[in-house]
Specification:
Blueprint (H helix, E strand, L loop, with lengths): L4 H12 L5 E3 L11 E4 L2 E4 L8 H10 L10 E4 L3 E5 L4 E4 L3 H9 L3 H26 L6 H4 L2 H10 L5 H6 L5 H8 L18 H9 L1 E4 L4 H13 L3 E3 L4 E7 L2 E7 L3 E3 L9 H8 L11 H6 L24 E4 L1
Parallel strand pairs: 1-8, 5-12
Antiparallel strand pairs: 2-3, 4-7, 5-6, 9-10, 10-11
Helix pairs in contact: 1-10, 3-4, 4-6, 4-9
The structure holds flavin-adenine dinucleotide.
């Protein structure tokens, strides 16, 4: 259930394994948060507009024995960030190491050195995170609480906040701000939250930032095409009202039109909503009772304005930041 990027990619994987797959989507359009509006000859990506780690996106196609190039065109964003500060300075961060060093040396040799050390250290963390956490499923407490995983978790040293962590490498206040603001993407203050979000500028710097020709929605259209080629179906305007559970195992879904049973039921909807609304019997909610979910604290989201412009703004590039 759910034709967001997660549900669609999962459908591709199951189809590649030989399952017969049906995706139910409550909205008229597929894509979930990755969506698009087209009006008066302007086209807007609604949320995601650029991506990191393109390999993750390509891998879904490889999994299905397809060449992603037959479906998508990745275009590099360079500079990865154009940062404008309140004192009027502007800095372009390029993936080209020569341009990057020129930019950083114009701040100071020490900060250029600090930035490169920062990249090296966070890169090492990324490798640990990737090998031991990001690519793993944690199903039981023992999957996490075992000596091997715990020792790797300690090596990540994520406890100090982003700003403090960055200050160990960098003197320049503007450069510090540039390297720590990314935790705001998930509504967390760089002055409080764990420093794990410093992975974001590091991964962008090392692996680049990318967009897709035609916008991010091209990825959704490509997955849809692949699902149809592999024999799957997608039913729009179909709201799943309940996940049917028997003896602790999900066995089907009740939609606004019928009941459907299957070997595997996968829920792509937001977790608190799904636990609250779709699992009716308290026995199967585990510790996620309605009370616990209503007491959860949510981080803030974003306020977005889509502007169709009649002129070009040469000072802007693809990815612009204005830091106060
Ligand atoms: C403002 C903003 C900007 C972002 N920018 C970027 C970016 O630049 N780069 C990037 O990589 N990521 C970005 N993201 C994050 C990215 O958009 C999301 O992580 C991603 O789209 C989540 O996909 P998903 O499949 O997990 O969930 P969703 O997209 O939420 O998909 C869930 C789907 O399930 C459907 N559904 C829910 N309940 C039911 C039901 N009962 N029955 C049937 N269907 C149901 C929903 O309609 C939806 O289609 C951004 C997010 C936001 C909000």
């Amino acid at each position: 259930m759910g034709a967001g990027v997660g549900g669609l990619a999962t459908a591709v994987r199951l189809l590649s394994k030989g399952y017969s797959v049906k995706v139910y989507e409550k909205e008229q359009n597929i894509g979930g948060k990755v969506n698009q509006i087209e009006t008066d000859n302007f086209k807007f990506d609604l949320t995601a507009s650029i991506l990191m780690t393109p390999e993750v996106y390509k891998e879904v196609f490889e999994y299905a024995d397809k060449d992603y190039r037959d479906y998508l065109e990745f275009l590099s964003v360079d500079p990865i960030y154009r940062v404008n500060y309140s004192d009027g300075t502007r800095r372009d961060f390029s993936t080209d190491i020569t341009k990057l060093s020129e930019n950083l040396e114009s701040i100071s040799i020490d900060d250029c050195h600090g930035y490169l050390r920062f990249l090296g250290d966070v890169y090492k963390k990324y490798q640990i995170a990737n090998n031991f956490f990001l690519q793993r499923t944690f199903r039981t407490p023992l999957d996490f609480f075992n000596p091997k995983i715990l020792s790797q978790a300690l090596r990540l040293r994520t406890l100090s906040n982003s700003y403090r962590f960055i200050s160990k490498y960098i003197e320049d206040e503007n450069l510090r701000k540039f390297l720590c603001f990314q935790s705001l993407y998930v509504g967390i203050s760089p002055y409080n939250g764990p420093n794990i979000y410093t992975l974001v500028p590091t991964i962008s710097q090392i692996y680049g930032l990318w967009y897709l020709k035609g916008g991010m929605y091209s990825y959704i259209k490509a997955l849809e095409r692949l699902i149809f080629e592999l024999g799957g179906t997608i039913e729009n305007n179909t709201n799943v009202e309940e996940i049917l559970i028997s003896e602790g195992k999900a066995i089907g879904v009740k939609t606004n039109t019928n009941k459907q049973y299957g070997d595997i039921i996968i829920c792509n909807a937001d977790f608190p909503y799904a636990m609250n609304e779709l699992i009716k019997d308290n026995r199967w909610k585990g510790k996620y009772s309605s009370k616990k979910i209503s007491e959860m604290k949510y981080s803030c989201s974003t306020f977005i304005i889509y502007l169709g412009l009649k002129k070009k703004y040469p000072d802007l590039t693809v990815h612009n930041m204005y830091l106060g």
